[in-house]
Amino acid sequence: MNTLWTRRAFLQGIGATASAIAFSSCSPQLSRNPVGLPEAALAVKPIIDPASLEKPNLTIGYVPVNDCAPFAVAWEKGFFRKYGLNVTLSREASWGNSRDGIIFGRLDASPVVSGAVTNARTGAEGARHFPLCAAMTIHRHGNALTMNRQLWEGGVRPWHSYGGNLEAFGRDLRHYWENSPFDDHIWAVVQSSAIYEYFVRYLVAAVGIDPLRKLRLLITPPPQMVSNTRIGAMQAYMVAEPWNTRAISGNEGIGFTFIQGREIWQGHPDRLLAVKESFIQDYPKTYRSLVKAMIEACQYCSNLANREEVATIISQRSFTGAKVKFTRPGIVGNFNYGGFDNQPRIANSSETTLFFDMPTSAIPHDHSTFLWQSQSLWLMTQATRWGQIAEFPKNADEIAHQAWRTDLYREIAAEMGIQCPSEDHKVEPSTAFIDGKSFDPSDPVGYLQSFEIRANAPQSFLLCISC
User: Which spans of this chain does the record mark as coiled coil (predicted)?
Assistant: First the structure.
């Protein structure tokens, strides 16, 4: 994180942290967890006998953002019950809580940000090493970067207004930052090691600005993003829906969506279903049932015919607690970027959030819940690029294989009649990334070193021998 702190920025950071702690500490008393299966779920006949499972009673976390949809659907539609599981859902205040609940044994499984699994194994940023595992994604896309009115008035506009011209966006952002105090260079993400942190840094660096020097990031729970932006604690944030839609004019009116994450990296993984490695080893039948229930829930969410219903389900108080008009755009796909000029900026796409089907993928049998281990390598390049780990791990392939259990997913999917890609790695084409730079997993170090802006990059100095 940036070390150029002012007293005001320091106090803002402490305030945001205090808010997160307060929000977290009061969550058990709020009792927002769903209780009592609905009739539709109770009517489902299990195809797996709970008595045949090593641990049929599970506590599973979720965070109140749109990507809780597969968990909400598995609960409401009886997919957990279908596979012999008696699940208690636990509403987590933040992505840190969701991860730590697994580490400290409070949760059996929970969604985590995509970088958390490998970063726990590499000890990124001095974190304790812990053997987290994931065999599937929960979803891809479904997130965005929101900017406040100050940035709009400073001349920045939604990304598609630039027609793909990074240089033009860079000029506007640089002009704003050059004419504003450092206290106005504060953006927020949901957790360190979240792909959002890497996206924000990647985006700023892509226009030639060093985010390690010119940007300070706060870690803020999703429900705190809008309110903290409103009071001026930060000028932008990257988060999952519905917290971007909620910010735009006509809703809360505190910001506009600059860019969706899928416009930074098309096809990126967002959340993973994480467990302890020992959970897979100790409860193999239970784990297979859990993954099957979640795959089926993701398929339900992916079906376009179900998306209006899904947006309604997650609006319940136990899940996001947000109005349907906030949850709907990210699920159905009529996403409004907003703005302060009363102009409509609606992008209609079924790929706004990907739960299972990937209609634009050219790879046979590719689908959203399938984990590409090569994408774990990309995440490790970014952890290295921004100084979270000292160097790219020499055993990165081994870490990816241990953490992202693509092999196990193939076995489970095959039992459900789902075909998968035959490879664990793929090249991410230049068209997938905002800066047109492709990623070849066979040379991650070369890819990393190709970025001029990175932590510990070689510096050039002018030596004056006549001075």
Answer: none
Alpha-carbon gap, residue 195 to 190, rounded angstroms = 10
Question: How far apart are alpha carbons 250 and 227 in whole angstroms?
Answer: 16
Coil, strand, or helix at residue 318? coil
Name the residue with tokens 């100790």: 282
Phi first, then psi, for residue 357 (nearest 5°) are -70, 140
Strands 236-240 and 57-62, how do they pair? unpaired
For residue 331, the domain's CATH number is 3.40.190.10
**pLDDT tens digits, residue range 219-252?**
999 999 999 999 999 999 999 999 999 999 999 9
Write phi, then psi, for 89 (nearest 5 degrees): -90, 135
Using a cut of 0.85, tell me whether the model's pTM lies above it.
Answer: yes
pLDDT band at 7 (very low <50, low <70, confident <90, very high): very low
Strands (E), 21-95: 57-62, 86-91
DSSP one-letter code for 32: -
- Contact yes or no for 332/230 (Cβ under 8 A): no
Residue 419 to residue 421: CA distance in whole angstroms: 7
Contact of 173 with 204, CB cutoff 8 Å: yes
Q: Is the Cβ–Cβ distance between 71 and 88 less than 8 Å? A: no
Q: Quick one: which of 190, 57, 34, 188 has its CA closest to 112?
A: 190
The C-alpha torsion from 437 through 440 and 444 to 447, rounded to 10°, is -20
CB atoms within 10 A of CB 311: 25
Asked if residue 50 lies in contact with residue 84, where contact means CB atoms within 8 angstroms, the answer is: yes
- Listed in sequence order, the residues at least 6 apart from 230 whose beta carbon sits closer than 8 Å to its beta carbon are 252, 254
What DSSP string runs through 172-190?
Answer: HHHHHHHTS-GGG-EEEES
Number of domains present in the structure of the chain: 1
At residue 350, what is the residue type? S
- Identify the domain containing residue 403 by its residue range: 1-467
- Do residues 112 and 133 lie in contact, with contact meaning Cβ atoms separated by under 8 Å? no
Place of tokens 């630039």: 162
Sheet with 236-240: strands ordered across: 216-219, 186-189, 236-240, 143-148, 255-260
Angle between helices 406-415 and 284-302 (to 10 degrees): 70
| Residue 352 vs residues 140, 220, 258, 260, 363: alpha-carbon distances, Å | 9, 23, 15, 8, 20
Name the helix (H) or strand (E) containing 298.
helix 284-302
